[in-house]
Amino acid sequence: MANPKKILVVDDDPDIVEQVTLILKQDGHDVHAAGTEAEAEEILLSIKPDLAILDLMMEDKDSGFVLCHRIKRLYPDTPVMMVTAVKAATGLSFAADSAQQQSWLKADLLMDKPIRAERLRSDVNRLLNRATT
Question: Comparing C-alpha atoms, which of 13, 30, 14 is closest to residue 124?
Fold first, then answer.
């Protein structure tokens, strides 16, 4: 990739961080990984990501929400993909299908865990292409 995109990956599960990082690096992206909201905030002081992939629930139940809002405040044009295991853990679907739901969530896309490589690649490319048009 001639101009690698900077992607921030934040999840408190090191296996998820490793899996997502490996996939994105294979595709030529410049990946910045964090395991906590605080680590991610430190990274955000030094880079403006082209895309952020955030776990919904980390050290606090709302860490992903808080971080998403912070990213959108700092970098409004940066797309944010939120990943969650809520459906797998509870059987309940967590979605932001309406404009009203999306307005408070701030994420551009919600993805259920487990993350499938093909879907991740497709959604990352779609969000990055949308951000550049």
Answer: 30
In sequence order, which residues have a C-beta less than 8 Å from that of residue 81 and are 6 or more positions away? 51, 52, 53, 54, 107, 108, 109, 110, 111, 123, 124, 127
Task: Name the nearest CA neighbour of 79 among 113, 114, 54.
Answer: 54
Give the span between the Cα atoms of 40 and 35, in whole angstroms: 8
Q: Structural domain of residue 113, as residue ranges?
A: 6-127
CATH number for the domain that contains residue 28 = 3.40.50.2300
Give pLDDT, residue 56: 85
Strand partners, 111: 83
Q: What is the pLDDT of residues 35-69, one digit of tens each?
A: 999 999 999 999 999 999 998 877 766 778 889 99
Residue 47 neighbours by CB under 8 Å, 6+ apart: 6, 8, 32
